[in-house]
Amino acid sequence: MKHTCLSLALAVATATGTLALLPASTAFAAAPAPAPAAAESSTAPVLVTAAQWQQMASDGARYPWFAKEQARNKAMLEKMMKAGIDVPFPKDKGGGRTHEQHKRNYQALLAAGTLYRLTGDTAYVDYARRMLLEYATLYPTLGPHPEGRGQIPGRVFWQVLNDSVWLVNAVQGYDAIRDALPAKDRQTIDDNVFRPMAEFLASEPKNFDQIHNHSTWAVAATGMTGYVLRDQELVEKSLRGSRKDDAFGFLRQVDLLFSPDGYYEEGPYYQRYALAPFLLFANAIERNEPQRGIFQRRDGVLLKAVDVLVQSSYDGLFFPINDAILDKGVDTEELVAGIGIAYARSGDDRLLSVAEQQGRLLLTPEGLKVAQGLAAGKAKPFDYAPMLLRDGPDGDRGGLAILRMGGERGQVLVQKDTMQGMGHGHFDKLNWLFYDNGQRVVTDYGSARFLNVEAKRGGIYLAENRSWAKQTIAHNTLVVDEKSHFNGDWKVGEDHAPSVRFFEAGKDTQVASATMRDAYPGVVFTRTQALLQHPELGLPVVLDLLQVSADKAARFDLPLHFNGHIVSTGFEAERFVDQRPVLGRENGYQHLWLDARSTPGSDQRTLAWLLDGRFYSYRFGSSAPSQALLVESGANDPEFNLRREPALVQRVDGQRAVSFFSVLEPHGEYNGTAEYVHGADSQIRELKRARGSDAELIELTLASGARIALGVADDSSADVEHSVNVEGRTYRWRGSHARIDRAAGKGGSR
């Protein structure tokens, strides 16, 4: 399947914060699943019951968060009602007028149903009725969208994915008013809008019968419509696939797209996006067929996914791996839906602090629970913790290692040892990111895209997403012979995942290690990274050891993409000040300007930069002679689509094996307002790497003479003793790895 891009039309909520309207399945964490409620009639609401609506109508105003959300929705909807109903013939791509109007319409339908139930004002019913009757006139006339892209264009939108999003939202608003409509109008809307839209989605197996977030939206839309229309055939297709053989469908997606830890295959950005249909439809299933035990499936993996998504963030923004947009974070509409549903089911008061950060909630039974918890002062800080999130349905396809110290805005090292991530995945095995002081320090580009900005190719993924953002040189990992991992073929990448070697998350020492095979023929590389605290270092430092071996001599490049202004370069280099050469011709190299280049050598080098009042010193070396290249993105970019960002590339030529090693040290303070500088000098005096018979070791010497060493064995499974000698000092340890500290003046063996 070719994976097409997503657009802003995918929002689950209204512009003012109204979210999908589904019920809390239980009121308390330990409560059993409820029995199916008997429908009062074939038109009574089934996504939120009449009794639940009545409770919200009577109690909601007592809780400030709920009342504020209701007032915001009322203001938004009445503005739209005043402007009049507009159901245009679809003709625009993402961001265009007709595209945006149909988005506003599903938002309005959702809000109208909500406000009718909360206020009893039938003006909202009449507004939604008249709009839906216009859709009932329009929809039967629609064929493939004129701006359709990919194999399956939508009808209302240019990609079928957005049609699914429209239906997920609109059917919830419709469910709330359906029993208030005249029978004739209800039949017209059922037969000409909701049923044909759901059947259209279910009739497209290249979209419906897939294991992918596009399909998740489609099956959720179809299944929720099936419940509202009392059409069990639609429900079964949505749960089990269009052929009802369990090869595809919602249940299969729950089983295959999440790891046992709740990590989603495409990464946090798409976990954020897919979470809404997963949880909204799961809530509908629980309400209508609790005997399926959907929230207990795979040990409660859907609720785990909410916690994992929050954990996969820093300072409110998600880790931008794969085709991610940098400014998406925990306040995104989809996670608002997730937090509400998860809190209603779990009673976990840590989630309330996330809701506070989001500043919004659901106008649903779940939202009422959140509002009640916040009013009672129950919110507890969310526990951001170091963890290894396994990837793959069985948890054996690599993982995302998150190392954390110093609290929510302290230091976070993310080592990306995950699966490919399907078509939205990047070619960046064993890539890493580093955060500190509320900033992105070692960065990932994310996607090359201006979401829904028509001037930038209509808001879709740009050509540079493929030529730059996905390419390996755009990331902080090994490049061999200037080619990307798997030669840039994501389908090949899907068959090969890293192997996690070990993970440790102690108070002062946190370490992650993984090995990658088959990213290049005949090449194996292993990366071990550590986040270390020491009393003589003001802040934790990052140690990085990347070991590579190949069956033939090759060129090895190791980029470091960093954020900040260069303060000093601790190496001699040729500077290209009159003309900027381009680093290469293809595989992303054509997008890099070359600003400086050192001669090959074995001496250690340093690079220091300043970011938001803090200094960062990077000391690096390699086991074979290397060059240091300073580069910047933006070459061969005539439409100015790329951000201009600096990078350092270590280059080793003509070797079959090499170890790259480095330490990144945050330190000091620059205060431009008070005009002072403290701690601008690195506290690390020397960095050494040594090799034993079956292990390697990195040794840091601090300004006082104290030493910190990290030993890494070749065989991570063997519980045997290893030893490495560093200029007469012998380090010994047992097992896969060890940290060994020595006070100043201490030598000899240990």
From TrEMBL:
Organism domain of life: Bacteria
Compartments in which it is found: Periplasm
Pfam families xrefs: Alginate_lyase, Hepar_II_III_C
One term of GO molecular function: lyase activity
Domain Heparinase II/III-like C-terminal: from-to ranges: 390-649
A Gene Ontology term for the protein's cellular component: periplasmic space
Residue ranges constituting the Alginate lyase domain according to the UniProt record: 74-313
Chief site of localization: periplasm
Alphabetical keyword list: Lyase, Periplasm, Signal
Residues of the signal peptide: 1-29
Entry-linked NCBIfam families: olalg_lyase (NF042990)
Name of the protein in its database record: Alginate lyase
Organism this protein belongs to: Stenotrophomonas chelatiphaga
